[in-house]
């Protein structure tokens, strides 16, 4: 019985298709069942061969990758890994693709790069094959109780961590938040350039102001600050009772820079019980230990429910170490956060 991950590669470049195929074939769990130079050719292959995962270029003739992705998500959701050039335009279209439902984006290596530069596609394709293509809209909220009742303290800052699927999750949460909420710090695993495009797109959708974080910037209510991708960790800092963002070029933590663990640890240190920590969909366990420090310091901690995650990795790891106080479906996350932040007595609406 063939249990391999069946992949179709869609790229208008013959060289690009060859490199992607050669890299993926190095993993014995992956089988290339077809390659297409444009979406029209790919459509016929998808209907005929029913792949588990599609890798999809963005800039192509006849129909661009975003238009094709939208059709795939509407007609028959299949995990799609976008392959995009690491440029400002490429970043903008990649963020749009993630909001449309793409599993993740892989930055296309520069011309002249060898097969090794495409090896990062392997874990993305394998994770995509295991992802949830249709997320549950259930609204059940699960409380993970400790031995004693927690004291409710209204927060001064909210910290959010996410990875794979996080762009779509942030797009479901931030536009529903009022400008009266405390400042929000966000670490989303993304390459350089991508986070600036993400902040700009979210800012157009939201009542709150969304921007890429800057070192030393004063944090204000009704604002969300996203860690710049790929280069520096985002930290909370406190001086004279006021909160600031800090960006540090330290070594990667939990395999990531920026790291969710680094953000959560700084929030636990400076704000403790006066904070909320939220861990969203993503691969791996980045954020689990940091969120535990927040909960131990008295913070209110939320994790995205398994059924509503694209990848139930980071929230699961956080739950397993006891870092999560409540597991919340994505569709209920904004309302749960608003209820807690606006409450005078800790009751939930």
Total separate domains: 2
Gross morphology: elongated
Instruction: Please identify the top-level CATH class of the largest domain.
Output: Alpha Beta
Main sheet summary: 8 strands, mixed
Radius of gyration: 20 Å
Number of distinct beta strands? 15
CATH superfamily of the largest domain: Methylesterase CheB, C-terminal domain
**What percent strand?**
15-25%
- Unreliably modeled segments: 134-138, 345-349
Assigned CATH architecture of the largest domain: 3-Layer(aba) Sandwich
Structural class: alpha/beta
Summarize this structure briefly.
It is found in: Cytoplasm. It is built from 11 helices and 15 strands.
Structural write-up:
The chain has helices at 14-24, 39-49, 65-75, 88-100, 121-129, 166-173, 194-205, 260-270, 288-296, 314-320, 330-342, and strands spanning 5-10, 30-36, 53-57, 80-85, 104-108, 142-143, 157-162, 184-188, 209-212, 223-226, 233-239, 242-248, 275-279, 300-304, 326-328. By secondary structure, the protein is of the alpha/beta class. It has 2 domains: 5-129, 3-Layer(aba) Sandwich (Rossmann fold); 142-342, 3-Layer(aba) Sandwich (Rossmann fold), CATH 3.40.50. The strands form 3 sheets. It has an 8-stranded mixed beta sheet, with helices on both faces. A 5-stranded parallel beta sheet has the order 2-1-3-4-5, sandwiched between helices. α3 (65-75) links the parallel β3 and β4 (80-85). α4 (88-100) crosses α7 (194-205) and α8 runs parallel beside α9 (288-296). The chain starts with a strand and ends in a 7-residue tail after the last helix. Residues 6-123 form the Response regulatory domain. It comes from Acetobacter aceti. Belongs to the CheB family.
């Amino acid at each position: 019985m063939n249990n391999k991950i069946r992949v179709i590669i869609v790229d208008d470049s013959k060289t690009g298709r060859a490199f992607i195929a050669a890299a993926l074939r190095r993993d014995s769990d992956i089988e290339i069942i077809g390659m297409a130079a444009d979406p029209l050719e790919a459509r016929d292959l998808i209907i005929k061969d029913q792949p588990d995962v599609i890798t999809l270029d963005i800039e192509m003739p006849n129909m661009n990758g975003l238009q094709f992705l939208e059709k795939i998500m509407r007609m028959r959701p299949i995990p799609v890994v976008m392959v995009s050039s690491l440029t400002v335009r490429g970043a903008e279209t990649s963020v749009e693709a993630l909001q449309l439902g793409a599993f993740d984006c892989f930055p296309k290596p520069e011309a002249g790069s060898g097969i090794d530069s495409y090896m990062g596609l392997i874990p993305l394709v394998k994770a995509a094959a295991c992802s949830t293509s249709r997320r549950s809209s259930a609204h059940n909220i699960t409380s993970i109780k400790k031995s004693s009742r927690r004291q409710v303290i209204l927060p001064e800052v909210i910290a959010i961590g996410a990875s794979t699927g996080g762009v779509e999750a942030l797009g479901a949460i931030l536009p529903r938040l009022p400008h009266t909420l405390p400042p929000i710090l966000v670490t989303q695993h993304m390459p350089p350039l991508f986070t600036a495009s993400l902040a700009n797109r979210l800012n157009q959708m939201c009542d709150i102001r969304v921007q890429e974080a800057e070192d030393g910037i004063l944090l204000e209510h009704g604002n969300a600050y996203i860690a710049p991708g790929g280069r520096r960790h985002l930290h909370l800092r406190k001086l004279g009772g006021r909160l600031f963002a800090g960006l540090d070029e330290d070594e990667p933590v939990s395999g990531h820079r920026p790291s969710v663990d680094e953000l959560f640890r700084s929030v636990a240190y400076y704000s403790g019980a006066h904070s909320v920590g939220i861990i969203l969909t993503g691969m791996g366990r980045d954020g689990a230990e940091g969120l535990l420090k927040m909960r131990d310091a008295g913070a209110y901690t939320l994790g995205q429910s398994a059924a509503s995650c694209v990848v139930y990795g980071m929230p699961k790891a956080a739950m397993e170490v006891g870092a999560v106080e409540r597991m919340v479906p994505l569709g209920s996350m904004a309302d749960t956060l608003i209820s807690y932040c606006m409450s005078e007595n800790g009751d939930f609406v």
